[in-house]
């Protein structure tokens, strides 16, 4: 099948795996129901416009890795945007807000592609659950190593209960 441009202008093609055929984004062009078109996997530069012609291809088996990898990157940026300013309490609030917005923009450059790539392989509830588990993990590392705060066992129990909830989201 020759490469095609998807509805968002990205050039991505391949064959869907039969077990994923019901959940993967499918677009047929008469060549067969196996044909799929997916959004951009890894931008060569952050925040490439969706109309850019990168010609990247992503295999269905790589979708979870691409999604989770991009979500980890986005959560590192968002954690710094939301909590990094706590080390700079003497800085004017408007400066902290502007810097946080700038960091959050970088976070969106990874979060939006992660959700586009992952949706269809994962449902929306699963994407949100993955994001929340990653958020808690990144936050624990951030609060201990960047903010120098102690991790208390009660926090561990609370996070474990959230992980138990994630288990139920992913079981059939």
From TrEMBL:
Give the Pfam families listed for this entry.
Answer: DMT_6
InterPro entries per the UniProt record, alphabetical? DUF486
- Cite the entry's keywords alphabetically: Membrane, Transmembrane, Transmembrane helix
Signal sequence extent: none
* Keyword Transferase annotated: no
Instruction: Give the transmembrane region(s).
Output: 62-85, 91-110, 130-147, 153-171
Which PANTHER family would you find in this protein's record?
DMT FAMILY PROTEIN
Q: What name is this protein filed under?
A: Membrane protein
**Which source organism does the UniProt entry give?**
Pseudorhizobium endolithicum
